[in-house]
Amino acid sequence: MQQESAYWLAWSKIPGVGPVLLKRVWQQFGNLETAWKASPEALCQVEGIGAKLLNTIKQQRSQINPLELHKKHLQNNPQFWTPNQDNYPRLLLEIPSPPPLLYYQGQVNLLENQGHTPLVGIVGTRYPTDHGRRWTRNIAIALVKHGFTVVSGMAAGIDGVAHQACLEAGGRTIAVLGTGVDIVYPSHHRQLHRDLQKRGLIISEYPAGTPGDRRHFPARNRIIAGLSRAVLVMEAPEKSGALITARYANEFCRDVYTLPNSPEVAQARGCLRLIHQGAEMIVTEDELLEMLGAIPELDQAKQLSLFEVEKKEDVPKLDPELLKIFQAISTEATSFDVIVEKAGLPTAQVSGGLLQLELEGLITQLPGMRYQRLN
């Protein structure tokens, strides 16, 4: 397991190989050590690896010793997960771009990583109104008292209010950073950072010492959405990073809730846009808790990795490629992106196959481009 993590690190150092492509490589070869030693011809079978990138990969493989790189990396980064490890958060495996390395600092709760404790994201503007602060605090406290873990980004404003309220209520909260886990950003959150290390968890896809960079934060937002079963946007102007998180949540088939306010309040206009686009309104704490309570706990017995095929006694007789699509769909709702990734087929072919399976009465389409097998 440790050796395989060394190859995740090595692959992540190759320019042009990002999280999406690295996931495809992993799916193609089953593990990254095998991929590292694969022939150029075999690597070319991975969608996204062309002649130029293949040449870069060949050069980097000749210069990098994965095991030595891993040993050196551990000196400053002793704690991180890679997708091949059991402790890697299961919900992140569902998204098209799981972080190749996920660094952490603080108190780990494996029930959260395995999906048995529901995680809810709370995001919003750095400049909230009193209304936004009050509702964020009250909802964060209500969530942790009912067994939820709150995920946010430790930014100024709504994020900080949510984290602080959780800690004061004695609950769990996870901060996803756009810096290294050892960097305090913004600087006035120094005490919050210390408190999170003692009673919460701090995670990031960036190694220790990585400073704040505005390009990192949109990428950070996909991790917040990916970790969460639902995302609450408390206040957001029309141009806001919180809306990026909501967009990712929609793409990942997560539920999105938002707090309404007057159109005259600039910090609320993004929330009103979300409501117009179909987000659920937060009206009362009790109603929100009731809706969130309908999210089922992930069943350990029914969980599938991205590379396992759900075993059924009666498998329909289908053409091989159509069978791949069918086997990529669970009895639980499965997003289109996950089906494409698991089937390993072109998007257009998957779309056509899904229509055929639906016409044959084997699957049904659900809202949000999700599909489900019919019993």
TrEMBL record:
<dbReference type="Pfam" id="PF17782">
    <property type="entry name" value="WHD_DprA"/>
</dbReference>
<feature type="domain" description="DprA winged helix">
    <location>
        <begin position="312"/>
        <end position="369"/>
    </location>
</feature>
<protein>
    <submittedName>
        <fullName>SMF protein</fullName>
    </submittedName>
</protein>
<dbReference type="InterPro" id="IPR036388">
    <property type="entry name" value="WH-like_DNA-bd_sf"/>
</dbReference>
<dbReference type="InterPro" id="IPR041614">
    <property type="entry name" value="DprA_WH"/>
</dbReference>
<feature type="domain" description="Smf/DprA SLOG">
    <location>
        <begin position="80"/>
        <end position="292"/>
    </location>
</feature>
<comment type="similarity">
    <text>Belongs to the DprA/Smf family.</text>
</comment>
<dbReference type="Pfam" id="PF02481">
    <property type="entry name" value="DNA_processg_A"/>
</dbReference>
<dbReference type="InterPro" id="IPR003488">
    <property type="entry name" value="DprA"/>
</dbReference>
<dbReference type="GO" id="GO:0009294">
    <property type="term" value="P:DNA-mediated transformation"/>
</dbReference>
<dbReference type="InterPro" id="IPR057666">
    <property type="entry name" value="DrpA_SLOG"/>
</dbReference>
<dbReference type="Pfam" id="PF14520">
    <property type="entry name" value="HHH_5"/>
</dbReference>
<dbReference type="InterPro" id="IPR010994">
    <property type="entry name" value="RuvA_2-like"/>
</dbReference>
